[in-house]
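EI: anyone free to look at a 136-residue chain?
SC: sure, send it
EI:
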Amino acid sequence: MLRAYNAVVLVVDNANNPVAGAEVVATLSNTTLRTITTDDQGKAHLGHIPFGPYTIQINYQGRQMGNWNPDASATPTFTAKLDTSGSQPPTLSDPMTMLREHWQLAAVGFFAGFVAMGTAVRRPRTKAKPSEIASD
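SC: here you go
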């Protein structure tokens, strides 16, 4: 029988104020990936997850704020404290996560690249007259 519990991630700032609008990406022990945005109380409700360790990554205002490795068997609520002072330099998310989240934009960019190549690479014009071109 699979044991699970109802997990909550509480995201707070250095003054223990709840952080609303933070993106919590949880990778569970069975490799399931869940992405949830915190509510106005700073909570991300992950639902029932398997007991054991899991990984969370928190993104806030376009910045990756950190990674944590809580253990689901220790407590149903994990608190992550963020430094929201702005002293950390902005970082890029990992490329595969960005592709999963913004695949439409990637597809349009890929298509636009093909269109641009099609207009840039053309068959060279010949100076031959139509009467000089051999026909089959």
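EI: The chain has a mean pLDDT of 78.
SC: 👍
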